[in-house]
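pls design
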């Protein structure tokens, strides 16, 4: 693990307190709002397709595989965006990438109004996924580098909670919009994107990143003007050719692989199941409709809140191990007992929804703490990209699996993902809760 145990005393921090110990102020609040606003936007963009995929598929003549591709298209883009733009942000800075990315959100959201073929829509959704991948790679890393150590875990955990808020908002708005207006529904993400874009114009560059680049005077000026008389902790200088290859050196490959693998195992069943939650509940003989869908979304919100609380109480390792174990049990109960009473099915599915929503709060905390400043967005971007392989694959294949195996068989297959996550966490999960950023 690259993060160093606290306290972090260095030549620059010995004479005065460091950024890690600064009180929470207006700059920290601005960084938090900018990052959490982007997270809610990401959730909205990925969630709104759940209401649009049906009418869009019918109007554009998509098969089951085509519908799966449309649902997974943004996730494919997240893979590419996270993989490549994390390295760009490590090389050229967080602020520049973070700002221009929101302009892409606005333009691409509006572009969905004029698509007139399946491939045009898939292409735009893939490009939106690229923009979301940038958010995943840069947002958590930037917030981790700005905020003090004490609230860092809760604030980073709140990224996923706000993602779920955006996801649920997409459900509520999608439920109120006519299916014929699916283009307007998809384009509605332009409005929150514009608001967040305006807010981000007031955010400076990360002082830690500037310090790693040797631009110490600029970094100290930002800290002096926006935070106060605090030292910037020493960080490892940026390498001339830093990139993905550095994530897989002999002393780092397990950490890098685990950062993506645990995320992969969380999001694969989440995206697949909740993109097609209506057909799944119907096959499980659970009554569909607005009330049932609303209950699922309320459980997601409650789970997200409980997840932030659990992050405060539990070690990082205990958090991932316990949440994977409960998720496996919830899916196995539904899959193994097809003749179970409806109450048991609803309870097991509710447990799965509650826990997987809360468990996902650690997705932006863990990788941000595992990687040092000079590689942080590269590492977080790789982890996000790796995770989206599972999300895109599971979402793309789930309609086919439902046709072939039914809901119970599909949920049994879905249980393999958290089971792999559980085993990987028992073997490799590090403890970073009380570590200072390197």
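designed seq:
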């Amino acid at each position: 693990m690259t993060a160093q145990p606290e306290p972090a005393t260095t030549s620059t921090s010995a004479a005065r307190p460091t950024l890690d110990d600064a009180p929470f102020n207006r700059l920290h609040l601005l960084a938090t709002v900018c990052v959490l606003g982007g997270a809610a936007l990401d959730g909205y963009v990925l969630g709104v397709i759940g209401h649009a995929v049906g009418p869009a598929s019918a109007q554009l003549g998509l098969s089951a595989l085509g519908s799966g591709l449309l649902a997974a298209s943004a996730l494919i883009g997240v893979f590419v965006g996270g993989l490549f733009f994390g390295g760009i942000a490590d090389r050229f800075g967080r602020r520049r990438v973070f700002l221009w990315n929101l302009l892409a959100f606005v333009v691409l959201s509006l572009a969905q109004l004029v698509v007139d073929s399946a491939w045009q829509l898939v292409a735009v959704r893939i490009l939106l996924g690229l923009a979301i991948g940038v958010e995943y790679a840069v947002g958590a890393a930037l917030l981790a580098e700005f905020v003090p150590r004490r609230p860092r875990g809760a604030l980073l955990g709140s990224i996923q909670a706000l993602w779920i808020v955006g996801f649920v908002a997409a459900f509520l708005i999608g439920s109120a919009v006519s299916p014929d207006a699916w283009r307007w529904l998809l384009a509605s993400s332009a409005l929150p994107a514009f608001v967040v874009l305006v807010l981000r114009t007031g955010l400076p560059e990360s002082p830690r990143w500037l310090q790693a680049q040797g631009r110490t005077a600029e970094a100290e000026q930002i800290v002096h003007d926006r935070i106060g008389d605090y030292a910037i902790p020493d960080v490892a200088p940026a390498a001339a050719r830093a990139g993905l290859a550095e994530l897989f050196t002999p002393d780092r490959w397990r950490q890098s692989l685990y950062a993506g693998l645990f995320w992969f195992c969380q999001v694969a069943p989440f995206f697949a199941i909740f993109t097609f939650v209506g057909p799944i509940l119907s096959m499980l003989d659970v009554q569909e409709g607005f009330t049932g869908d609303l209950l699922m979304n309320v459980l997601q919100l409650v789970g997200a809140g409980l997840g932030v609380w659990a992050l405060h109480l539990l070690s990082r390792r205990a958090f991932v191990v316990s949440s994977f174990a409960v998720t496996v049990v919830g899916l196995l109960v539904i899959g193994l007992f097809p003749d179970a009473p409806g109450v048991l099915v609803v309870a097991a599915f509710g447990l799965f929804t509650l826990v997987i929503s809360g468990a996902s709060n650690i997705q932006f905390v863990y990788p941000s703490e595992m990687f040092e400043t000079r590689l942080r967005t590269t590492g977080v971007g790789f982890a996000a990209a790796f995770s989206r392989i599972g999300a895109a694959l599971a979402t793309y294949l789930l309609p086919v699996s439902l046709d072939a195996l039914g809901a119970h068989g599909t949920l049994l297959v879905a249980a393999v993902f958290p089971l792999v996550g559980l085993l990987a966490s028992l073997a490799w999960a590090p403890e970073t809760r009380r570590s200072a950023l390197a």
